[in-house]
Design a protein that fits this description.
heterodimer; A: alpha/beta; Rossmann fold; 20 strands; B: mainly alpha; globular
């Protein structure tokens, strides 16, 4: 099916998400929609999938204008959208999720759908156990299930929103294989992403969006510089490594074990020096999460010693860690880091005004405004945090960090951020590091780790399997260590 | 003699639980769709009064039950419209309705207080009631009890065996996802709120026309609504387990009565109140079974797994959340 967007506009109140978008998508190809956060990609795809209604403009399928306003109507026209967070039902089983929404009689023929599911799994090389609750599946498997469901519904057009975020490299390979096969069968695939490498590996054609409008269309093979230029105007320089000299040991782990996460942590030892930036690599759930939470005092070790300077920190509560200069920025910003429902100034009051019983609101507000300015947060002192975009939420978290932390712990700090925001974020961090802050961060992007850190710890199944200076290692060695082959 | 006592006791439990079973199954349907109808206690009283008044005036039990079901559905409709379509807090609306319906019931029911009215009579099932032990317990009862048995199985089959039941569970779990799959979320939620309310209404009628016949102040059904709400949680939103909870509570009440006869020196109030804290204790037990340490222990003792799994139950994820204006965007 040929899809044609003609002059699509979308306004949310006063803000404009799409301003006059026009382009064509050909069948049998994988078409990438590229752009930084807030460029209008998701809005455009939500319009196409019937989840939101456009303000003006036309959409044509095979030359015929179509109008619809619900996901169900879009499905009837053959369009399905796979969201970043799959819209599925965690306590229901794989089979039940698969059947929901498919036309069937009052009494369901489970056997029929089980056969169908199995057939599709075989065709695309997926492995799904129909009896398992979806809550026990990984994100990648949930994605596969959604994909199968849309295929059984007979969709012609599949939209995938950031499909590679949060899935393992193996699952990514399986997914890409499946997508290529589907394209060769004549399906139209639209991939929304801000990851250049994914788009380059997968797409035949790319439409770059910038600030709600089309910045350009490109065909494979892509010229990276050109794509970046379209996304950002000028390509951003990668953040340099911090060059401050390293000082004495500020934090050390001695044979620390703990539960938590998928693998827990088994007898982990490492020490960190003043002004050092250390990247924690590994597949998601290999032990980086518990490691950071142990260092923040949020989890208690089952065994071993955690020292901050000379002081043994075992058994102390998180507040004591914070008072001693440890700050933790979790990846789940709205769940663990910020308090939804509170405004920006309330967050600052909560973080910094613990001396007086009555809050001096005037002072807090003017102070908040200064921070908003300094950290370039797009929001007002009285806007609730949940109304801000992910990048801006990350900036708030950073602005909540005390002036000169001794240890700063970051869990996947740039996940979901576009290149520009990530670069800005690291610039700020390097300012801290130059003043002697020790930074520990986990990341799924090896590139990022190699670029900014002095040292890398690789986690595999709850153990630290590699502890090496960045200058003395390379992509391949780290990649092997991540897979457990040291 | 001893055995006879036992049988009489169990028959009493089955009969006594009848209204509660209707109420908990109704509330399970409602909550499974993601809506909490907190007005249960008031609804029970109001529908009990309506059932008694209508039956007293017309002489028709059927009309009484029908009017009670309509009353229950009408009260639930207020919760539904306010919660689903107007986005108001279901808890606040439900709570206010509880108090209002209760007062309304006593005010409107005043002319019918302490009158003798018609009742549902026992209807032994031929042949089956002659079975040893089971006969007198299960089949020497009234029609309501047989409807109970039927309804437990029916609701269970509906929820886990049919497409509509699957949609019901999906709606309460993740309304946005259900909407994306072409399910009319609000219509379904409203439907189950009404159906649940009607069942609660039938429960009220079962009190005033059968289990605690007649109307007066205080009516014997007072407080049962709250218990029903607790039992739904206790049963983990599963129709069969929820019904087990209702029977457990009825059994605790029966035990209270028989213990009172055995130890007359203990004040009667102790036995009347005892089922409530015991119910809380059972709730604690249920949460205890979800502790990690217990799970680890159970993995080493496989025989305990079915028991522990029985106590498992998670609330529908979107339970009680006010519906958003436009799902999704």
């Amino acid at each position: 099916m040929v899809i044609e967007f003609q002059d699509i506009h979308k306004h949310y109140g006063a803000s404009v998400a799409n301003r006059g978008i026009s382009f064509r998508v050909e069948p049998g190809r994988i078409h990438g929609i590229l752009g930084e956060n807030g460029a209008g990609k998701s809005t455009l795809m939500k319009i196409l999938s019937g989840y939101t209604v456009k303000t003006s403009g036309r959409i044509l399928f095979d030359g015929r204008p179509v109008e619809y306003g619900t996901p169900a109507a879009a499905l009837d026209l053959g369009i399905g959208m796979l969201y970043q967070e799959p819209l599925d039902f965690l306590p229901l089983t794989v089979l039940e999720n698969f059947m929901l929404g498919q036309a069937s009689g009052f009494l369901q023929s489970r056997a029929y759908y089980e056969r169908k599911l199995e057939e599709w799994c075989r065709q695309l090389g997926f492995q799904l156990n129909p009896g398992l609750p979806v809550g026990k599946l990984t994100l990648g498997e949930r994605q596969q299930l959604e994909l199968l469901r849309f295929l059984t519904l007979g969709v012609d057009v599949l939209i995938l929103d950031e499909p590679t975020t949060g899935i393992s490299p193996v699952q990514k390979e399986v997914l890409f294989e499946a997508l290529k096969r589907l394209a060769s069968q004549g399906k139209t695939l639209l991939i929304v992403s801000h990851k250049l490498e994914d788009v380059e590996a997968l797409c035949d054609r790319v439409t770059v969006l910038c600030d709600g409008a089309v910045a350009g269309n490109l065909d494979a093979p892509f010229d990276t510089e050109q794509v970046l230029g379209m996304m950002f105007g000028t390509p951003p320089a990668p953040p340099p490594r911090c060059t401050a000299s390293l000082g004495s040991t500020v934090l050390s782990f001695e044979e620390v074990s703990a539960t938590g996460g998928r693998a827990g942590l088994t007898r982990g030892s490492a020490s960190f020096r003043r002004g050092e930036v250390v990247g924690l690599a590994g597949l998601e759930g290999s032990g980086q999460g518990p490691f950071l939470r142990l260092a923040a005092g949020l989890e208690e070790p089952l065994g071993g010693l955690i020292r901050l300077g000379e002081r043994v920190m075992n058994g102390l509560d998180p507040l004591e860690f914070r008072r001693s200069g440890v700050t933790f920025l979790p990846t789940a910003r709205l769940e663990e880091g910020l308090v939804p429902g509170l405004t920006l100034s309330e967050h600052f009051a909560l973080a910094f005004h613990d001396r007086t019983f009555v809050i001096p609101w005037n002072e807090v507000t003017s102070w908040t405004e200064k921070r908003i300015d300094r950290f370039r947060i797009r929001g007002r002192a009285d806007s609730p945090v949940e109304s801000l975009s992910g990048g801006n939420q990350q900036r708030i978290l950073l602005s909540l960090v005390p002036e000169a932390p001794i240890v700063l712990l970051l869990e996947q700090p740039t996940r979901g951020l576009d290149l520009e925001s990530a670069r800005w974020f690291w610039q700020q961090l390097q300012g801290l590091c130059a003043n002697g802050t020790t930074i520990l961060f986990s990341s799924a992007e090896l590139d990022e780790i190699l670029r900014v850190s002095h040292r890398v710890l690789v986690f595999y199944n709850g153990s630290i399997v590699l502890n090496v200076k960045t200058d003395e290692t390379d992509f391949n060695q780290l990649g092997r260590a991540i897979a457990g082959k040291v | 003699m001893h055995e006879l006592n036992f049988i009489v006791l169990l028959a009493g439990v089955v009969a006594g639980a009848a209204p509660l079973v209707f109420a908990v199954l109704g509330e399970t349907l409602t909550e499974k769709a993601g809506v909490i109808n907190l007005s249960l206690d008031g609804t029970l009283l109001l529908s009990a009064m309506v059932a008694f008044a209508v039956t007293f005036e017309t002489g028709s039990l059927l009309l009484g039950f029908g009017a009670a079901a309509l009353t229950g559905a009408a009260v639930a409709a207020v919760v539904g419209v306010a919660g689903i379509f107007l986005g108001q807090s279901q808890l606040a609306v439900g709570f206010v309705l509880t108090l209002m319906c209760r007062d309304l019931a006593y005010f409107l029911g005043n002319p019918f207080a302490r009158l003798h009215g018609p009742q549902v009579l026992p209807l032994p099932v031929p042949f089956l009631n002659e079975l040893p032990v089971l006969g007198p317990i299960l089949f020497h009862q009234n029609l309501l009890v047989y409807l109970n048995f039927l309804l437990i199985g029916l609701v269970w089959f509906y929820m886990y065996g049919t497409r509509w039941g699957l949609e019901l569970r999906a709606v309460g779990e993740h309304p946005q996802a259900a909407y994306a799959r072409g399910i009319n979320v609000r219509r379904l939620q409203m439907l189950y709120v009404l159906a649940g309310g009607a069942l609660v209404g039938v429960a009220g009628a079962a009190f005033s026309l059968c289990t605690k016949p007649g109307w007066g102040r205080p009516q014997g059904a007072e407080g049962m609504g709250w218990i029903a709400l607790a039992i739904v949680i206790f049963g983990g939103w599963h129709p069969v387990k929820v019904a087990c909870g209702a029977y457990l509570f009825a059994w605790l009440q029966m035990m209270g009565i028989s213990f009172q006869n055995q130890w007359p020196s203990i004040p009667a109030q102790v036995f009347q109140v005892a089922p409530f804290p015991l119910m809380i204790f059972v709730l604690l037990l249920m949460h205890f079974s979800q502790k990690r340490a217990v799970e680890q222990w159970a993995e080493k003792h496989p025989w305990s797994l079915p028991l522990i799994r029985f106590f498992h139950g998670t609330a529908p994820a979107s339970l009680g959340q006010p519906a958003r204006k436009r799902l999704g965007s």
